[in-house]
């Protein structure tokens, strides 16, 4: 047994020489602290980065929700505009305001010549809308002579139909120059 005890003593001695416990342990402490601090700093910076990304994600989802709400509102407003812009709706509103379809249009050429025969609108407003005071005054003023009568259409020109609306954008014809 003494041989094995000496071998063990020899191994322990070698291990003790390889791992001294004296002043060299103090030299490792700054290195261990540096490694621990680097790991802690890395974890903290990773946590801060993750928090910033989450904040950006929440802000992005909020902005997407607001965009969806504003898009829905814009589409609703566009539907309202389209509804009010339909020809039937425009005609109904015009009749409610006392407007009537115009007669045949007349155009001015660049040289000052009048093309076409201007006519006064003769259609009556729809019975649902009360007649404008000006329309009834113009009708009663004509027999007294205070308002000049509109030029009568020539026999070649067809009379204006009260239900036919005038075109909104007349296209002038060429003067034949």
From TrEMBL:
Region of interest called Disordered, as start-end residue ranges on this chain: 71-177
Biased composition (Low complexity): 134-145
Composition-biased stretches (Pro residues): 146-156
Segments of skewed composition (Basic and acidic residues): 79-96
Record-given protein name: Septum formation initiator family protein
Alphabetized Pfam families for the sequence: DivIC
């Amino acid at each position: 047994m003494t041989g094995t005890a000496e071998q063990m003593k020899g191994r322990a001695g070698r291990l003790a020489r390889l791992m001294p416990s004296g002043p060299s342990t103090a030299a490792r402490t700054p290195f261990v602290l540096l490694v621990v601090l680097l790991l802690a700093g890395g974890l903290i910076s990773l946590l801060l980065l993750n928090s910033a990304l989450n904040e950006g994600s929440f802000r992005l989802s909020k902005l997407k929700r607001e965009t969806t709400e504003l898009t829905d509102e814009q589409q609703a407003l566009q539907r309202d505009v389209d509804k009010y812009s339909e020809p039937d709706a425009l005609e109904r509103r015009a009749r409610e305001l006392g407007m009537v379809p115009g007669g045949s249009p007349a155009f001015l050429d660049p040289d000052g010549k009048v093309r076409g025969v201007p006519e006064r609108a003769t259609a009556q407003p729809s019975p649902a809308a009360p007649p404008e005071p000006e329309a009834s005054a113009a009708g009663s003023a004509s027999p007294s002579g205070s308002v000049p009568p509109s030029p009568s259409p020539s026999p070649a020109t067809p009379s204006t139909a009260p239900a036919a609306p005038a075109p909104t954008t007349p296209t002038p014809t060429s003067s034949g120059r």
